[in-house]
Write a structure and sequence with these properties.
163 residues, alpha/beta, 3 helices, 7 strands, 28% helix
């Protein structure tokens, strides 16, 4: 048996996998429609949300992204779902996406998307949202909706990032 020499802390840390981390928002209106947004550079629609900045936690990230992408200011509620994506041709590191419950707002709540970052938004009924979100994000939506009903966080693993 060959014994490898001990590595320094820096070498050991450098050998560990890195992840991309993001947080998103599940926000519904009184009619039960889901708020989704569309960036022109992406094929599918997405949830308000984004990557977690250095020094920022997932809850603060989701609140910040909701405000930046929609103009809405709300506090994040319960963690609903955690999505883990394995490395792929699309992403060289794993990705983790945390989905928080932002409750409901009145029908007709005005949304303002930032020019240059997002093209538009939509309040979509669940079946429509599942279609528009595409394969990776629709898995997240199903998991989040189930968790919102029974209060149990869902963990989903996928090969498709939707990142």
């Amino acid at each position: 048996m060959t014994v490898e020499p001990l590595r320094s802390r820096e070498e050991w840390l450098a050998s560990l996998p890195r992840i991309y981390a993001a947080a998103g928002c599940l926000l519904r209106d009184e009619s039960g429609r889901i708020l989704i947004v569309k960036a022109g550079y992406r094929e599918y629609w997405q949830f308000p949300g984004g990557t977690i900045d250095r020094g920022e936690g997932p809850v603060r990230c989701s609140e910040r992204e909701l405000e930046e992408e929609t103009g809405l200011v709300k506090e994040a509620g319960a963690l609903l779902a955690i999505s883990w994506t394995h490395p792929s041709d699309e992403l060289d590191h794993p990705a983790q996406h945390l989905m928080f419950d932002f409750g409901t707002v009145p029908d007709g709540t005005p949304v303002t998307v930032p020019a240059g970052e997002l093209d538009t938004y939509r309040w979509a009924a669940v079946p429509e949202a599942l279609e528009l979100l595409g394969p990776a994000r629709s898995v997240r939506l199903r998991a989040a909706l189930e968790a919102a009903v029974d209060g149990r966080v869902r963990i989903v693993t996928t090969e498709m990032s939707g990142f």
